[in-house]
Amino acid sequence: MALGQASGNRLELDGVGKQYDSPGGSIQALADVSFEVSPGEFVCLVGPSGCGKTTLFRIVAGFEQPTTGTVRPERTTEQMNMGIVFQEYHLFPWRTVGGNIRFGMEQLDIPTDKQRERTQQLVDLVGLEGFIESYPKSLSGGMKQRVALARALAVDPSLLLMDEPFSAVDAQTRRRLQENILDIQEETRKTILFVTHDIEEAIKLGDRVVVMDKNPGQIAEVIDIDLSRPRSRTTPAFGNLYERVLDHID
């Protein structure tokens, strides 16, 4: 069960809409959202508050069904070829770092020796050497998020979904986590859909940035990020892309 064994999946959204009924009438949260994420691609989804980013994330993850349109491949929350990392860590406090990482593998009845091997690989990959027997209460916020990332990767997903995963940590830790996920993506070639409210983060990380508008939530523009890595906010090309995204959000 070597790292990166599962190749990245293509993700396609075609005309996705979401409508909620309320006592005051219907609310159109999303309208005609269409884009795709190619195998092995890192795509960031960014937009203003209330544009439906989280609703769209939940639809892709299988937690909600769209009112209209389709998501391919179809997904349900029971499927294990998809890893999910949330803003909150959602670690089991009674399990060690290793125990949290092993959880998904235990549900799949992967042999114990393979679980141990992969857990150690992932601990090394996310930079938590020496903490495999530690409990979440003894970890910093950044370390907890690394455990959550390792747990998501443990089932060797072909698609990794991340919903503002670095927004709850300080700026320095955030930079380290950004570098960490880029290193992981380069090594494993997972397909990643990464939701963020931070324009700089989206441009720094993504191969493409999907920019959303609101009322209702829809795609304003899909922007190719043709910049070599590492990327610096101080370069003119980065600044131009930043302003291009900001024009849709301001």
Topology:
Layout: E1 11-22, E2 25-37, E3 42-46, H1 53-61, E4 68-72, E5 82-85, H2 97-107, H3 112-125, H4 141-154, E6 159-163, H5 171-188, E7 191-196, H6 199-205, E8 208-213, E9 218-224, H7 236-249
Parallel strand pairs: 3-7, 3-8, 5-6, 6-7
Antiparallel strand pairs: 1-2, 1-4, 8-9
Helix pairs in contact: 2-3, 2-4, 3-4, 6-7
Structure description:
The chain has a 6-stranded mixed beta sheet with strand order 5-6-7-3-8-9, with helices on both faces. It has a 3-stranded antiparallel beta sheet with strand order 2-1-4, with helices on one face. Residues 76-80 have low confidence and may be disordered. It has 7 helices and 9 strands; from the N terminus they run βββαββαααβαβαββα. It has helices at 53-61, 97-107, 112-125, 141-154, 171-188, 199-205, 236-249; strands at 11-22, 25-37, 42-46, 68-72, 82-85, 159-163, 191-196, 208-213, 218-224. The protein is globular, with a radius of gyration of 18 Å. Helix 2 packs across helix 3 (112-125), helix 3 crosses helix 4 (141-154) and helix 6 packs across helix 7 (236-249). Helix content is 35%, strand content 25%. With 250 residues, it is an alpha/beta fold. The longest helix is centred in the C-terminal third of the chain and has 18 residues, at 171-188.
